[in-house]
Design goal:
Elements: E1 3-8, H1 18-34, E2 39-42, H2 56-66, E3 71-78, H3 84-97, E4 102-107, H4 114-120, H5 124-129, H6 131-143, E5 161-166, H7 169-178, E6 182-184, H8 193-203, E7 215-223, H9 227-245, H10 265-274, E8 278-281, H11 283-297, E9 301-305, H12 311-324
Parallel strand pairs: 1-2, 1-9, 2-3, 3-4, 4-5, 5-6, 6-7, 7-8, 7-9
Length: 330
């Protein structure tokens, strides 16, 4: 049976506060915990007024304290923005607070312009080149499998599940080489999905942490009582995608009925392209789309994405999705 998890960007709505964004993320995690979801991940983004998950480990500490069973983790930490030692300390602390519940998903793309690079005091182009070495160093800081001149405390001996994130073949190759579980960001970059999964499974080398390949794929999912209601729910995120791709990112806007009908052809084509990793509609239709996607990808796990302007609508969407997909199998 396919497992389901949740990815949250901690969106900040137009007219709402950061405190309200964190409260909504907490309520979403609690509902995911109640529904039996496997894990709840928060993504690292910086200098974006519509996304509040920049201090990812701090947000996860709050989420962990508000939940009881669900795994908590990063989807992901952009390692070039940090040092391996700092992340080992942060996630070692999380593991000590929430033993056996912590995931550390790692990404290579910092997504930062010159101003943010200066603010982070990082040469991110150079840091990205060292990403494979930094991943290996981080794993050694946590596991002690390689002797290092410094010990992370907290960190060493922490039971943190390391994941490789990706939207290209690079992450798939590195995940396979290091024997790590692999999560593909099809919700915003579906182009290399099939090739990346095939490469990862073909070249996978077992490790102490993982004996055989394990994949998770991200989908944008919006479920409601009618297809039209679900399409309207999805329009807030669609507006955000269009704004981001046109260089005008902002806070999450209210939904617009029949939004895509108002768009020029290039914007509609972009959203249609992203739609190959999406399920929008009634619970029955969402189940059918997810089932087809699982059969296509062979994913062991689907991580549900999809910001809604009304936090209660996302809770309801997730509930309808999980109930409808209770028996979806790869």
């Amino acid at each position: 049976m396919t497992k389901f998890s949740v990815l949250d960007l901690v969106p900040v709505r137009e007219g709402a506060t950061l405190s309200e964004a964190f409260a909504a993320a907490t309520a979403l995690a609690q509902k995911a915990d109640e529904l039996g979801c496997e894990r709840f991940w928060v993504a690292e983004h910086h200098a974006m007024e519509g996304i509040a998950g920049g201090a990812t480990s701090v947000v996860l500490a709050h989420i962990g304290g508000a939940t009881s069973r669900i795994r908590i983790g990063s989807g992901g930490i952009m390692l070039p923005n940090h040092t391996p030692f700092q992340i080992a300390e942060q996630f070692g602390t999380l593991d000590a607070l929430f033993p056996g519940r912590v995931d550390l998903g790692l990404g290579r793309a910092p997504g930062a312009g010159p101003e943010l690079q200066r603010a982070l005091r990082k040469n991110l182009a150079q840091a990205s080149e060292y990403f494979p070495q930094d991943v290996a160093e981080l794993r050694a800081l946590l596991t002690g499998d390689v002797e290092l001149p410094v010990t992370a405390t907290p960190g060493l001996g922490a039971n943190v599940e390391l994941w490789m994130l990706g939207s290209s073949l690079f992450g798939a190759q590195l995940a396979a080489k290091l024997g790590m579980p692999y999560a593909f960001a099809a919700h915003f970059a579906p182009d290399h999905l099939d090739a990346a999964l095939a490469l990862y499974r073909r070249d996978f080398q077992p490790s102490a942490a993982l004996e055989k390949p394990y994949t998770m794929v991200a989908m944008n999912v919006f479920a409601a009582d009618t297809d039209k209601d679900a399409q309207t729910l999805a329009s807030s995120q669609q507006q955000s995608f269009v704004a981001l791709r046109t260089g005008n990112p902002g806070k999450l806007p209210p939904p617009i009925a029949d939004y895509t009908a108002t768009l020029p052809a290039p914007a509609r084509a972009m959203l249609d392209h992203l739609g190959q990793a999406a399920a929008v509609g009634t619970p029955q239709n969402v189940r059918g789309d997810i089932d087809a996607f699982v059969k296509r990808t062979g994913a062991d796990e689907i991580i549900l994405c999809g910001s809604t302007f009304d936090p209660e609508a996302r809770l309801r969407s997730m509930e309808l999705t999980i109930e409808a997909c209770a028996n979806v199998a790869a």
